[in-house]
Amino acid sequence: MNIHEYQAKAVLAEFGAPIAKGVAVFSVKEAEAAANELGGPVWVVKSQIHAGGRGKGRFTEDAAGEAGGVRLSRSVAEVVANAQQMLGNTLVTHQTSPAGRPVNRLYIEEGSAIARELYLSCLVDRENGRVAFIVSQEGGMNIEDVAAETPEKIVTVHVDPAAGYTSHIGRSIAYALGLEGGQIKQCDRLIAALYRAFTEKDMSLLEINPLVVTESGDLLCLDAKINFDDNALFRHPDIDELRDPGEDDPKEVEAEENDLSYVALDGDIGCMVNGAGLAMATMDIIKLYGAEPANFLDVGGGASKERVAIAFKIITADPNVKGILVNIFGGIMRCDVVADGIIAAVKDVGLEVPLVVRLEGTNVEEGKKIIAESGMNVISADDLDDAAQKIVAAVGGGVQ
Length: 400
Ligand code: GDP
Ligand code: MN
Fold this sequence. Notes:
Elements: H1 5-14, E1 22-25, H2 28-38, E2 43-47, E3 58-59, E4 70-73, H3 76-86, E5 90-92, E6 101-102, E7 106-110, E8 114-125, E9 130-136, H4 143-149, E10 154-159, H5 167-176, H6 182-200, E11 203-214, E12 219-221, E13 225-228, H7 237-240, H8 250-257, E14 261-264, E15 269-273, H9 276-288, E16 295-298, H10 305-316, E17 323-330, H11 335-349, E18 355-361, H12 364-372, E19 378-380, H13 384-394
Parallel strand pairs: 15-17, 17-18, 18-19
Antiparallel strand pairs: 1-7, 2-4, 2-7, 3-5, 5-6, 8-9, 8-11, 9-10, 11-12, 11-13, 14-16
Helix pairs in contact: 2-3, 5-6, 10-11, 11-12
The site of guanosine-5'-diphosphate has 17 residues, from β2, β4, β8 and β11.
């Protein structure tokens, strides 16, 4: 799960990381009040969306022309004007889709005088099974470009889980970042705080780009992006509350509310499958025959007719879906329940694309009979191979 920058900064501040003063706002009026409260003389008006690259982003309706999604403002009037242009507007960045993301929240922050922009992130290095800090003196810009062009400017420091954080780690990072004097002690404290935040809150990614050295020589987290491990969210109701449903794919939200594992993908064949292993095998075989799956949807082991119907509706709601493959192995799940669910959903929302159904296992005969007698235009398949070939042919794709 992702959260907004202002929320990430509040989480980091709880652990003692240095951030600038700021106020999250939802309206122009609140933006004006926040600007007055912060007092200036310089403010930064920051669009809050779950994507980076805001500074260099562009609004789809931009009265101000070239200014991006992060704007320095030198008067309350300028804060108000920027808030007016940003709120309700759509921001397109290199990390959003070309359609962009709606901006419904802003963070009004006191402006900082920047001497240096550094890069810092923390993640779980799966190869080593350790938390790693990745830092670079080339902050504020695209770290992907730095990695591609000057990889030697990126330094990785691992934390031994048995020893935990030690000052040695903070000092190594300070050295890599070219910090000096009192900044070294500040870096030590910062990294200790970030490591504690990362592990205690079950983060999977923490990125501070830029981490800045201010003109007065202090470290400050100027941006913050956090991704939490969804599987650990049950331990963090405070984090779960920070969810912004406006940022989530509505189909994924509906699936989650109904205990369905659903991930939207880029292809055009919608898949309804039970069991993650079978779902992966189904995606593989669709690709084998030259097409691409539109989603990963696992209805689980013992889904009810209602849940099958919801799953089917979620798939048909995706405009990219040109055909649907239902591939169910009835173990605990009964094939007749699946058939009933599909028919209920089709009655409700209709069926405008080809549907291939492959059922096997418990009550398979009843299931096939229900579908055959439903009058629906269904292509039935004998096995997974047959099913995949039939759906790929039905959408007119694939290799011969
Ligand atoms: P991102 O583009 O989504 O990563 O948004 P950031 O929060 O990183 O802001 C983009 C850029 O705006 C930063 O790299 C800074 O150069 C600049 N910026 C952000 N806050 C301030 C500030 O308080 N003062 C100044 N001078 N620049 C800022
Ligand atoms: Mn940034």
